[in-house]
Amino acid sequence: MTQRPADDVAPKANRRLASLGLVAVSLVISGVLLEIALRLLEPLGVQVAAQIGRRDPRAVLIEPHGDLGYRQRANAVLHYQNGTTATANLESYRGPVVTRPKPPKTFRIILLGESTTHGWGVNDGETIDAYLRAILQNSVANSGWKVEVLNLAYDGYDAYQILERLKSDGIPRQPDLIIVNTGINDVRSAKLEGLVERDGRTLIWEAELSRIRAERERGGPTLWVQVKHWSYLARLPSVVRQRQRVAVDPGLAVQPVVFPEAASIFVRNLERVDSVAHAHSIPLLFSTPPSVIAVPGSPFLGRRAYHLGTAQDTQAYRDRLAEGMQSLVGRLAAAGHTVNYVPHQMTPDLFLDDCHLTALGNRRMAETFAAAVQPWLARATTPRTR
Fold this sequence. Notes:
Layout: H1 6-41, H2 47-53, E1 62-64, E2 70-72, E3 77-79, E4 85-87, E5 106-113, H3 115-118, H4 128-139, E6 146-151, H5 159-170, E7 177-181, H6 206-218, H7 223-230, H8 232-248, H9 261-279, E8 284-287, H10 311-334, E9 339-342, H11 359-381
Parallel strand pairs: 5-6, 5-7, 7-8, 8-9
Antiparallel strand pairs: 1-2, 3-4
């Protein structure tokens, strides 16, 4: 067998190295160009680029709160797809910061709920709390009293998150009245088999919350988190995986099994909310967010993460939660607790989707709440005669 001359091997090895180097340089250049393209396409609203832009792990707009929960990060600005924005103040809630301790001649309301109460898809001046604040303040004009409404609701909250937010951020601010408007997101929990109280599976951002908690314990983010913070390209695989999961999700086509624990846990958490309010002698108003999902001719019948099967199935479970809330209010009122239920009537034109309201819809909600609040406000602001 003839042996290849040494002077022939070296050039071929050099050519291989040159080829590999050229491939490496090409990959680097392609990566840089793709990175630039993604950054340029994001402001134009291209879907994939926008999804990648929102995947910055260091720009998460929530923070862990309590043992099992979250709230919006202080001073965070949430951009909705319809162009509206929601701004959190420096104390992690939407709206004006209130003074602690509560000043004299101040009637303070705590508003608790989900994205429907937080104000999904509307600007800061178009939320339930903004309209309620203005309506009630106008009703006590020239009295020397100030009305404050704190919006401690947030996107994705269920009844347990509401309870935790009330205890940690609500009660310390000395409310004169509490409004709880909820009954949408606990429907989502009916998909979970073996649901228990304080169940981490109910947290829609649990992966991010776990990461943030780990970073706090570790003293900082991992190298990979830093890379994903600086590079759009590094975030691309997670977006692709998410899109693949959505594409093959059997829940989009198959009727899921509905587990009964969610409704009973929902009512128990509302009962705990009442226990907190009753222990501090604070009047409590319960309310169910309006829903248009099963209204004949409704355009909002598409699937959502919080839906159960068909629109009718989802609405039926929402009605079940509302009935549980109303039944609880009846039992609590009979036991002498200061609690009431506030119903709402909305037409389909007041909805952005099946449960989130337009600015006008939020104003209608505020008007209904204002009427329910008026007796308590009048009692507090009317001078007492000896």
